[in-house]
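Homework-ish question, so no full write-ups if that breaks the rules, but can someone show me the predicted structure for this set?
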Amino acid sequence: MIRLEHMSKSYGDYPAVIDVSAHIKQGEVVGFLGPNGAGKTTTMRVLTGFTPPTEGTAAIAGYDVVSHSLEARRHIGYLPESVPLYLDMTVTDYLRFMGQMRGMNRRWLDERVPEVIDTVRLGEYRNALIGKLSKGFRQRTGIAQAIIHEPDVLILDEPTIGIDPIQVVETRSLISELGGGHTLILSSHILPEVSAICRRVLVIHEGRIVADDDPENLSDRLQHAERIEVSLRGAESREVITALRTLQSVVDVRRDTRPALERAGEQGVMALIVDARPDANAPEDVARMIVDSGWGLVNLHPLPMTLEEIFLELTTEEDSPA
Amino acid sequence: MRNVQTIAWKEVRTYFASPMAYVVAASFFAITGFFFVASVSDPFSEASIRGYIAGAIFFMVFLSPALTMRLLAEEQKLGTLELLMTSPVREWEIVLGKFIASFVMLALMVAGTLYFVIVLAWYGDPDIGPIITGYFGVLLYGSATLAIGLMASALSGNQLVSLVVGAGLLTALTVSDFVADRLTGVAEQVVSNFQLGSSFSVFDTSSFGVVEGGHFADFARGIISVTDIAYYISMTAVFLFLTVVLLESRRWR
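A: Not a homework solution, just the prediction itself:
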């Protein structure tokens, strides 16, 4: 459905996207993940035909975005990051206008506009001026215009940026519902968002794709540092930390400062986070040391790495050789 | 063409919903009304609309860019241009749609001055020929000024910039006879042939009736010349084309 072949895009001398290749199949829900300025928006602008690539090609549904731009554009629904809307139009008028711009006829619009307003739950505001709507409702209007013409490909750039947390949750569930029928590309620098919605993640950093995998595999692949959470009783924290640091398999030990509800009631229990070398049996070593030293081991379990940390790993890795 | 129609209709509706169009229309009626009255209230004055025309074409230098300044500048400021340009719509359809909307507004305003003709016919015996060519000329002249204003609106996301650039260009084209007077040979020919309309005849109470200079003069006299028609149509086409080029160039930035 979407094909990027060695696509590069420069603004003057500044390379925004460098040699990106990716194939996205029909019905896939893909997240572009990367910090601000990584090249996500530029990639989306190339895909939507807003700006042509400097090198390489991009195609939507088999149509090249440059040579068959209009055909390619017919297959997309797009919501730019800034959620551009005509503030002096009502929601219904705006959706009808955007539908017509995408080639919908009157009969289809009569049927489809109320349906989409229901989908994005804007029923009460169907005749409200967009300028009077809150940020979250504007976001929904923006999503509505992207899906009005039932496009094959839906491209949403940072769809939850700048709206309040409750609206974020609603917008995410809305996007998850949409994922069913469309090929969906979503960009975000918020990792839980991508892992909650997308089944495939392209991590983009400094204009390059640095990882392309599903969220689970991504975390497996990148687990070169193992992490263990240890709770114990009956010892000075400094003493324990110094002792654990002497172990071969341990990289670092620190106090667990996260508020832990389950430990709240227990007296004299301290929680530690141990960063360990992978494949070095660190949990065994740590457990043996605690037991041998006569401290009370309360809890020991490996922690899965969150996408946030993977992401940090990825980006810092890219930085260090340069 | 369906897209052109959709865009034009949307813009016309927006005009009616925004105060700007009403402000522009009100000043247009006030100014043209004043010049019409001033030109026909002397004893033994000629029953013609030349005073109205002189006022109309002079003040369109400011009023046309005021009508068009929002059309593309706001699309750029709001970012809605990105959505239009990623819809299956061509740049020329966007430009033509917006131009037609502004022309409809201008034509409605001009139509609103037709009562001058009724007043003249009631109290006098006007020569209908120059009136018809005059109105025809005003519409042609108006379309050229709107195209120039629209081009200025494509330059940036700032409406004020588009107003100043548009009115500036139109002023330069209007006073080009002053420049031409100080030139000789081919340069004089070229510059004077680019004169859009009369310059300051509007302030000359003795020549109210005669709109001098520029491509407008003959229309005011009741003469239809192919050169003048071709001039206004070419000016409109060239500036609309420039507007399309400016929009297309945004893709490469």
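Now go work out the reasoning yourself. Hint: Chain B touches chain A through 25 residues (CB under 8 Å).
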